[in-house]
C-alpha cells in the first residue's frame, strides 16, 4: 500500500490521499524516493514545474482507491475521481471513457500519428492520452510524452493524468498538461491529431452560449457543448491531421446541427463513424454515443487522399496502429476492418413545405433529407427483408451514393461501424458517401437494408407529402425556463375561466387518449400559445418525444374533445379532401409508415418538419375507407398495453394496399417489423 493510503470510508473502502498517492506512484515509476506535495515531487525529479502551475491548486484530499489499469503502475491504486460529485459531473456532462474502446479507435484510425503532436482538449485523467503514449512507446517513438498535450479545468484529474503518463512512458519526457478552457481559449498551436471525449451539456448559460456563438461558426439553436469541441478540434489540426472524438450522436441527427454537419462532412474529409450501443454510459442511458474520425482539409478546402486517413508524405502508420492495441488483440489491417480486437481494461475521465407554413415550430430550424428516387412499385424479390450481418466477415450493405461494401473493402466513402460488442468490437461495417451524412437523417438512411430502401421508394412514388395536405404544428410551450417546476401553469383542477383541459405526450397512445384530468392556465403569459381555435377543433395529436431505439416512432390519436396539447405533443388538423383524420391516423400508426419514418429520420424529437415529409397515398375510395374503418375500430379497443394490438395486422394490410397496390405484402411487412425491432444505427 503506498504512503498516504489507508482504510476508511464506507464499508472499509481503501482511501487514497492525493499527496501520498502521487509521491508513492512517482517513487515506483522513477525508482527513487519522492516526498512532499505534488509540486515538490515534480521539482525533485527535475521536472518542469513551470509547465504545471496548477499543481499549486491540488489539495491533499482523500478519495476511494481503485485498481490501476496501467501496466506501468503495477499494483498501485488510483484515486477514484469518478465517484467524486456524481451529480455535478452529470450536470457538467462528464462521462468516463472505457479505455478498451480508446485502444480500438486508435488502432482503427491509425493513431497516434507517426509524427507531430497529439492533443486531448478535455483530457481528464488520461483515458485517451495514456493509450496513445503506450502506442508510441511500443513503436519506439521518442520522446513520446513531449508530443502529448492535454487540457482540462480539473487540476486533480490533471495530476492523475500526469502520474499515469509517467508510468506509461518512463523516461519519455514530460507531457504538456494545461489547466485550460479549450473552448474559450483555443490553442494557437496546431496538432497532427486531436482526440478525446468532450463534455456533453445542453441548456448552456446564456452568457456562455453568446460567447461561443461569437467564436464558433457552427453555432445555431440550442447546441450541445460537445459540438463546439468538434469544430474547435478540427480547427486545431494541421492540414491532413486526424480528429477522433467520442460524442453523443445528436450532431448526426438533429435539425439544429445542420451547420456542424456541413462543416464536418462537406468541408473536411470524414473517414469513419463508430456507433456505440444503447446504455454505453450507464449513468446517461439516453445518450447514444458515436466516435467520429475525420481528416482536416488542406488549403483550398481539399485534404489528403487515401482511405487510411494518412497525410501526404507521412510515414507508414501500420506499426503504430498495431502498437496502439498491442497486448489488446491482433490489429493487423485485415482484422482492423472487422473490428476484431480484444478489450483492454480500466476507465478514465473525459468530458456530452406546403400551404401551412404558419403552423411551424417556434425556435426550430428546418430539416431536409435526400429526396426519394424512382423505384419499382411492385418491390420485386422482397420476401424476408433486411440482410443480416454477424461475426467474422459479414456482408456489407449498399448505401446511398456508394456501392456495397464488405469488411476490408477500400472503396472511398465514410465507413460506418456498428453492432458493437464488448468482447469482439464492431461486427458490421458499411460505407456511405459523405454528403449522405450531411443530412439530418443520413446516418439512418445509410444503414437501412437495400430491400427496405426499394420499399420506401415505392411508397413515395405518386404520393404527396403530408405537409401539403394538412395543417401541422406544435403544442403549447409554457416557458423557456423551468424555474424548478416542470409545468408552471398546469393544475390538478380548473382554477379560473381561462383554464383549459391539457394533454401531455404520455397521455396519448396509438388511437387512444387517456386524459389524466389536468388543466392549463391559458393566456398571453405562455411563451407559445398556438391557435386556440385549432386546439378546440378536431385534430390528430402525436407524441414528439420518442427515443431513437423505440420500435414505434409515430404514436397518434384523434382528439374530438378539444384538448390543448403541451409541447410534448404536436397536431395535424384540417386535412384537404379526400383525406380524413381517421385515414391519416391509420397511416401514422401503421408498421409500414413507422418503418419509413425510422428509415428516414433518426432523432429523439419527432419534428413537424419530419412529419410534413411523410408520403400520403391517395389510393382509391375503397382502400381509404378500409383504413378508416380499421382506425375507427382500433380507437374503440385501444389500450396501449400488452403485445401487438389485435387491429394492427389488419391495419398494416390495409395501409400496405394503399401504398403498394393490391396483393399479398406479408414479406414487406415482415421486413418492416424487423427493421423496427432492430433500428439502424442503434446497437
Topology:
Blueprint: E1 5-7, E2 14-17, H1 18-30, H2 38-44, E3 62-67, E4 77-79, H3 86-92, E5 97-98, H4 99-109, E6 118-120, H5 129-138, E7 148-152, H6 155-168, E8 176-179, E9 191-196, H7 206-215, H8 225-235, E10 237-248, H9 250-253, H10 258-265, E11 269-275, E12 289-295, H11 318-324, H12 333-338, E13 347-348, E14 414-421, E15 425-432, H13 434-437, H14 442-447, H15 450-460, E16 464-465, E17 471-474, E18 490-491, E19 499-503, E20 508-509, E21 512-513, E22 519-521, H16 532-536, E23 539-543, E24 556-559, E25 564-565, E26 569-573, H17 581-588, H18 591-600, H19 608-612, E27 615-616, H20 621-637, H21 648-660, H22 666-677
Parallel strand pairs: 6-7, 6-9, 7-8, 9-10, 11-14, 19-25
Antiparallel strand pairs: 1-2, 2-3, 3-4, 5-13, 10-12, 11-12, 14-15, 16-27, 17-26, 18-22, 19-22, 20-21, 23-24, 23-26
Helix pairs in contact: 1-6, 4-11, 5-6, 5-11, 17-20, 18-22, 20-21
Q: How would you summarize this macromolecular structure in one to three sentences?
A:
The chain has 683 residues and is of the alpha+beta class. The chain is 29% helix and 17% strand.
Extract low-pLDDT stretches. Answer: 1-10, 87-93, 303-407
Structural class: alpha+beta
Q: CATH homologous superfamily of the largest domain, by name?
A: Vaccinia Virus protein VP39
CATH class of the largest domain: Alpha Beta
Q: What integer value in Å does the Rg equal? A: 28 Å
Q: In whole angstroms, how far apart are the ends?
A: 41 Å
Strand order of the largest sheet: 8-7-6-9-10-12-11-14-15
Number of alpha- plus pi-helical segments? 22
- Write down the CATH topology of the largest domain: Rossmann fold
Q: Can you tell me the overall shape?
A: elongated
CATH 2nd-level architecture of the largest domain = 3-Layer(aba) Sandwich
Average pLDDT, to the nearest integer?
Answer: 81
The largest sheet, given as strand count, sense and whether it forms a barrel, is:
9 strands, mixed
Number of strands: 27
Question: Helical amount among residues, as a percent range?
Answer: 25-40%
Q: Report strand %.
A: 15-25%
Count of the domains = 3
